[in-house]
Design a protein that fits this description.
The structure holds two protein chains of two kinds.
Chain A (H helix, E strand, L loop, with lengths): L7 H24 L6 H4 L18 H17 L2 H6 L6 H23 L7
Chain B lengths: L1 H10 L2 H5 L7 H4 L1 H6 L1 H21 L10 H21 L4 E4 L4 E4 H27 L6 H18 L3 H19 L6 H32 L4 H10 L8 H19 L7 H8 L2 H9 L1 H17 L3 H22 L6 H21 L3 H27 L18 H4 L1 H15 L5 H15 L3 H27 L13 H19 L2 H12 L3
Antiparallel strand pairs in B: 1-2
The chains are: A mainly alpha, B mainly alpha.
Amino acid sequence: MFFLMDYFSILLLLFVSIGLACLILGASYFLGIQLPDTEKSSVYECGFDPYEDSRNKFDVRFYLIAILFIIFDLEVLFLFPWSVSLSYLSSMGFWTMMDFLFELTVGFVYVWKIGALEWE
Amino acid sequence: MITEFYTFFEKSPFKSFLGLNTTMDFSLVHQNCFKMFLPEIFLATSILTLTLYSVFIGSSRNLGYPLIIKNLIKLCILTLFITFLLINNSSVFSLLAYQNTFVFDLLSSNVKQILVVATILSLVISEDSVVRQQINNFEYLILILCAVLGLMFLVSSYDTLSLYLAIEMQSLCLYVLAASKKDSSLSTEAGLKYFILGSFSSALLLFGISLLYGVTGTTNFDNFHLLFSGIGFDNFSFAPLIEKALLAISVAFFFKIAAAPFHMWSPDVYEASPTSSTVFFAIVPKIALFTAFLRIFQIFFSGFEEIFVIVLIFFSLCSVIVGSFVALRQKRLKRLLAYSSISHVGYLLLAFSSNSLEGVQSLYFYLIIYMLTSLCLWSIVLSLNTKSNLMKNKTLLDLGSISHSNAALGFTTLVAFFSLMGVPPLAGFFAKIEVFLSALGSSLYFPALIAILSSVVSSFYYVRLIKTMYFEKKEEETSCIPVNHSCSLIMSLCLFSLIYFFINPNFFLLLTQKMALCLF
């Protein structure tokens, strides 16, 4: 039990987030004025009809953009833990991230120059 | 660790007491690491530079979108050559770098040298094929360099995390290399197959690593050493869990080196991917994978000897038997060579399972000789061109009448096949006998017997190929397209070294002994 005390704050966070989610959803459900129509109650899916045969043609450029987005988004995500812990890091830690950003830029230049970002 | 020490040091009153008022310069702490990492840093920087160079030149409208692949091959070879020189230049005997995640010792530097040289040679022999198959995207070569970089990291990795990342780096490059012929559905299929099975094995590897971490609380090999050196495993209540972790890791490893029964991907991938990529798959990655996994298994070997020896012998005999018997029915040259490489992996695992210095030494000796032989064989496969079969994958019939149309090429093929078989006046004989002797030395009599009998079976299909070449009349005489100059140079170099290392194998024996000593 003693070791589990470390997780108490996480338990607290769990309860607070569940409570807050219930509160917000419940408030908008009970207090809001609801006038549903077909457009409002249908699922929104980026310009596609969500209820049709999934085996239809799909422009490959969507995939390309999505993959590029995921790559750059996830790699930039490393910046957050780095910037939080920057004050504890040595110069090595700083320059490692600079190197990482440089390499990311090279990747970006590559993607740009081969024309992967052009829609037409 | 260092940062904790640093903050402690900054706050402590000892600092002023010792008269150290200047802040510590941390570039000095990592100075040796940088020095050791110089080849990798150079290679990584050149990869970036070459990417920028080729993307700017290749997509330049003013220059008319030139094809730079021929130019880039030369630049890649130059880069790898300078990397080789840099590896040669490093002088530290043994060093753990970057919080013990990487190790630099004689083993890693020697394996890196072998890797780089093998890549240079395979690039030289496949240069013509790359141009002929119209692989015009320069990414192909950049990916080969990336794979070599990943393999170099793999050889040095001394932490399960760096091991996993390095394996992923090299195998992601290899998946794309397999699929690099975009207009061929076969090549795409090969890439997809390789990707799915490869990521499956990576998942198993991660599973094993996470179990190990869950039991021991560390990912570092150095800590594993410390943890398991003093105590016996019998007293360790988590021993069954560690066994399972090691089993998962070894299955991932067998996937990567294509040991039976996890070999299914290798013949398909070898057959369907462009021959220039197949050459790279077949020659280069094995030695790095073996090195990385030897480092892991050597730590745990003493504690789990019974189960480990059984597992290794099972997979070794499976590979030897599957490799020898299934290859009998193969009609296509690349598939045949894939199955023959599976059986050779079996012999390597037999050497591994003997768990002795001689075993590891004979493993490396066998690997090096096998790399030399397969370099020779693949350059032959790449140069068996006639007017009619230029773009097709070669079958065994293409070898027919080669002894008449190009006698020197025929003789080289003969010698290479005899060396793979292990016929005495060639280096392959020494490699095989070393493996069998090390197995016998650890009293693995029955496995050694099975392996020897299977090698007799496998010599049948090599001899059949030689019969096709020399003793069968072909109806229409076809004339070979003359062999590329650099390719023939490498072929003859391999041929002479196969004969020379039978007469005087001391160079490689000493080298491999030094490499094996690093692990014990």
